[in-house]
């Protein structure tokens, strides 16, 4: 494994799956099967489960909890939403921001995601910022231009100190939930491009420490090869994070 341990993260994104009862059993099953991880493991869980899963990970070294979204305002008349202060008070460690499903179904763009990133950081919550191109962009070989713009809009005005708390997840939209994975080389090329961008904007110290995760149909069968690439520091895993055995296998990859 070529990734430095300080950059290594395997995060599960449960999306709108698992009841609280199922979620607690899943988190406990993963911890039992994967044991003490190298690097960090994060469970990205439905909001209603954050408090319970936080209790579970609090007793396990290397395990953390993430929300899947957060509102950008401090508080107020936003029915159904959760603020950064609420998440922080519940002990939430990370928040997934800018996932392609939120971009697609909730119209989120990088300027809104930027606001959310700042708000999360203000409350001590570490953002997992998701970026990635759609299929037509990849087919036209414009992926670096598009992902570069996403990152510029969402991250470029952060301070070095703020950026050092951000995790980046590169998730090509055409690979999410499709069973189609980027090849290890496609992932490596994009991750190296992203790390160069971070180095240019924030300096090599920040770039060498930022965790850049790959997401999109990560499975036990492909995790080792993907995570073995020099700039792939781990994964953001959807479907395969819903089964304790397969997520544990990915953690150990
Ligand atoms: P997938 O989802 O692993 O099911 O492709 C990844 C994600 O959406 O984060």
Strand content: 5-15%
> What profile does the largest beta sheet have?
8 strands, parallel, barrel
Order of helices and strands: EHEHEHEHHEHHHEHHEHEH
Q: At the third CATH level, what is the topology name?
A: TIM Barrel
Task: Give the number of DSSP strands.
Answer: 8
Broad shape:
globular
Helical run tally: 12
Detail the poorly predicted runs. none
Radius of gyration over alpha carbons? 17 Å
Count of the domains: 1
- Strand order, largest beta sheet: 1-2-3-4-5-6-7-8
- Termini separation comes to 8 Å
Q: What number is the mean pLDDT?
A: 97
**CATH superfamily membership, which one?**
Aldolase class I
The CATH architecture assignment turns out to be: Alpha-Beta Barrel
Bound compounds, each kind once, are: 2-phosphoglycolic acid
CATH class: Alpha Beta
Report on the structure:
The protein has 253 residues and is of the alpha/beta class. The chain has one domain (5-252): TIM Barrel. Helices cover 45% and strands 15% of the residues. The chain has helices spanning 20-34, 50-58, 84-89, 100-106, 110-122, 135-139, 143-155, 160-163, 184-202, 204-209, 220-227, 244-252; strands at residues 9-13, 40-44, 63-67, 94-97, 126-131, 167-170, 212-215, 234-237. Helix 7 (143-155) packs parallel to helix 9 (184-202). The longest helix has 19 residues, at 184-202. The structure holds 2-phosphoglycolic acid. The site of 2-phosphoglycolic acid (PGA) has 13 residues, from strand 8.
């Amino acid at each position: 494994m070529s990734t430095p341990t300080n950059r290594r993260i395997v995060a599960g994104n449960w999306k709108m799956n698992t009841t609280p009862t199922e979620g607690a059993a899943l988190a406990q099953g993963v911890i039992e099967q994967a044991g003490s991880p190298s690097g960090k493991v994060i469970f990205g869980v439905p909001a209603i489960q954050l408090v319970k899963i936080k209790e579970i990970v609090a007793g396990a070294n290397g395990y953390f909890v993430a929300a899947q979204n957060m509102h950008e305002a401090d508080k107020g008349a936003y029915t159904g939403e959760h603020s950064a202060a609420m998440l922080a008070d519940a002990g939430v460690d990370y928040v997934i921001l800018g996932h392609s499903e939120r971009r697609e179904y909730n119209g989120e763009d990088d300027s809104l995601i930027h606001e959310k990133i700042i708000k999360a950081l203000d409350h001590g919550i570490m953002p997992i910022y998701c970026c990635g191109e759609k299929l037509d962009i990849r087919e036209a070989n414009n992926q670096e231009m598009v992902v570069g713009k996403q990152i510029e809009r969402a991250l470029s005005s952060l301070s070095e100190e703020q950026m050092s708390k951000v995790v980046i997840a590169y998730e090509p939209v055409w690979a999410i939930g499709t069973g189609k994975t980027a090849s290890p080389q496609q992932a490596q090329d994009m991750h190296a491009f992203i790390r160069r961008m971070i180095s240019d904007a924030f300096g090599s110290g920040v770039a060498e420490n930022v965790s850049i995760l790959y997401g999109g149909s990560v499975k036990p069968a492909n995790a080792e090869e993907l995570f073995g690439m020099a700039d792939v520091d781990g994964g953001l895993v959807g479907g395969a994070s819903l089964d304790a055995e397969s997520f544990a296998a990915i953690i150990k990859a």
